[in-house]
Amino acid sequence: MKLKDKLVRLSIRGKRTIVISDIHGELELFKKLLEQVDFSRDDILIVNGDILDKGRNSLGTMKYIRQLTGAGNVYVIEGNCDRFFDELEEEWLYPYMDYRYTVAHEFLKETGTTLTDYKTQHDFAEAVLDVYSDYQTWFRNLPTAIETEDYLFVHAGIEDDYLETPREVALTMPEFYLSNHHLDKKVVVGHYPAANFAEAGLYSHGIKVNDERRIIALDGGNQVKESGQLNALLIETDGTLTMQAVDALESALVIQDFEVTLQEPHTFTFPDYNIRVMDGDDYFTFAEHVSTGTQFMVKTEWIIEKEGQTYLKDDYTDYFVDVKAGEEVKVVGQYAGYTLIKKESVVGWVPEEVLDTSS
């Protein structure tokens, strides 16, 4: 099946349009974001794929969004994680459940059962579809892309001849933000966290916009990144773009100014974590990123060893954030002497004494 087989054309010029991607079962965050952007019946809402999986309430999220579509101003595009009801008998499902919270876990909780209550995976699949076959049909009928006067909305990416893009590619293409395309419109994608595309060395979960390549990357890393967020792209009635976001991180008050006058930040993201370590202490260790040869200071707690190799334990940035007393920031994690924070979607470090984290 090709993109052209599941394409919806829609007129949005002159209408305020809100685009949200990769909700991943976080219903309360989604509702909070809709409230924050003041979503109303006068707006158009486009959900750009991945309603399901990873978050706490995928079943509730899909029910709520399907209900929203009844008003006639809400449109949903399929994402790769939204194929759950078609993948109930895949061999990878049970092993995947060992390390990811899934719709399957929610169904078991809802029905008060465990996997051992079903003799075979086929029996489990039948039990799920006895309840949710109607949603399986709803997801199957979602478009792969929505094309408007100035935009193409698709979950992951397109090939050169966008209409001939295989559906599987449109749902799973990685790193499309770094690609080029021939369409004379902006292509808006989710799927791959925008934070993976470090610009100016910064680790930012904010929406990435490349006007030259005509690509916008929406995915704020919600439920995928520790410091992730749920992003909304707002296409205003005059065509200008604004952005808002929400997350579930705790806030902290800055109680003293902190500023770094000169730094060259570096960010390393999944899956390129291999490093060589040199001198260090309990706070920071001097290291070299193997694939790029970049030398940098890494927070010592971020270093792990596995099978004789040394790695960063997760995405890492060595950026120090400038903050002023009276500001509020989000706390990602507290470590020896320093706190990892997020300010305006950008993640970085501050000394622990500049924050009041008592609340």
From TrEMBL:
MF GO annotations: bis(5'-nucleosyl)-tetraphosphatase (symmetrical) activity; phosphatase activity
One Pfam family in the UniProt entry: Metallophos
Domain Calcineurin-like phosphoesterase: 16-199
GO biological process, one term: RNA decapping
Gene Ontology CC: cytoplasm
Superkingdom assignment: Bacteria
InterPro entries, alphabetized: Ap4A_hydrolase, Calcineurin-like_PHP, Metallo-depent_PP-like
SUPFAM superfamilies documented for this protein: Metallo-dependent phosphatases
Database matches in PANTHER family: METALLOPHOSPHOESTERASE (PTHR42850), ZINC-DEPENDENT ENDOPOLYPHOSPHATASE (PTHR42850:SF4)
The protein's name: Calcineurin-like phosphoesterase domain-containing protein
Gene source species: Macrococcus brunensis
